Amino acid sequence: MTYQVPRMSLAESDAWLGLMRVCELLPAALDAQLQANAQITHFEFLVLTSLQLAPEKTLRMTEVAHTTNATLPRLSHVATRLSARGYVERTPCPADKRATNLRLTSAGRSALMRAVPRHIAQARELVIDALSPEQLEQLAAITAAIDARLTTELGPRLGLMANPADTAPANDR
């Protein structure tokens, strides 16, 4: 059986290809900047940031996975790397010993604080300053709509966490 897919209009194709180009170029640019200036990847930056913003600089692994849109296996691998560098500590969750918490260390906070100014400058240079205030509002609305669709429809199939409470604590390892 052949499945027929309607062709995209020129406007749809331009929007789609533009989005795909940005989705490829932006992460590479952010990674390159963070690697050069702070010796961390963009994903490591996201993990450290989520911990910095958490109460007591500590979150369950499932909460970090949810915040960073990561699978638990990917997060576990990165947490091992960050732990080896002294940036995070893994500890049993006091509320549920089957779960694991990640805590930001002072070395991790220092690494993050060194990375933030140049990271913000890069984000401004590449995205924020390229758009008008109206375009920024539109971008926020567009990305929210796409995020909602991806999280709802694809999140469970990709192993992404829609809600940390939806995953059994035993998966926190």
Q: How would you explain this protein's 3D organization?
A:
- The protein is 62% helix and 10% strand.
- A hairpin with a 2-residue loop joins strand 2 and strand 3.
- It has one domain: Arc Repressor Mutant, subunit A, CATH 1.10.10.
- It has a three-stranded antiparallel sheet.
- 23% of the residues are buried.
- Helix 2 crosses helix 3.
- With 173 residues, the chain is mainly alpha-helical.
- The C terminus is likely disordered.
- The termini are far apart.
- GO terms for molecular function: DNA binding; DNA-binding transcription factor activity.
- It comes from Demequina lutea.
- One of its GO terms (biological process) is response to stress.
- This is DNA-binding MarR family transcriptional regulator.
- Keywords: DNA-binding.
Q: Domains counted in the coordinates: how many?
A: 1
Number of helices: 6
CATH architecture: Orthogonal Bundle
Order of helices and strands: HHEHHEEHH
The residue-averaged pLDDT reads 89
Helices, strands, pairings?
Blueprint: H1 10-38, H2 42-52, E1 58-60, H3 61-68, H4 72-84, E2 88-93, E3 96-104, H5 106-126, H6 133-158
Antiparallel strand pairs: 1-3, 2-3
Short recap of the structure:
It comes from Demequina lutea. By secondary structure, the protein is mainly alpha-helical.
Q: Keywords for this structure?
A:
3 strands, globular, mainly alpha, HTH_MarR-typ, MarR/SlyA-like, Arc Repressor Mutant, subunit A, DNA-binding transcription factor activity, DNA-binding MarR family transcriptional regulator, disordered C terminus, three-stranded antiparallel beta sheet, DNA binding
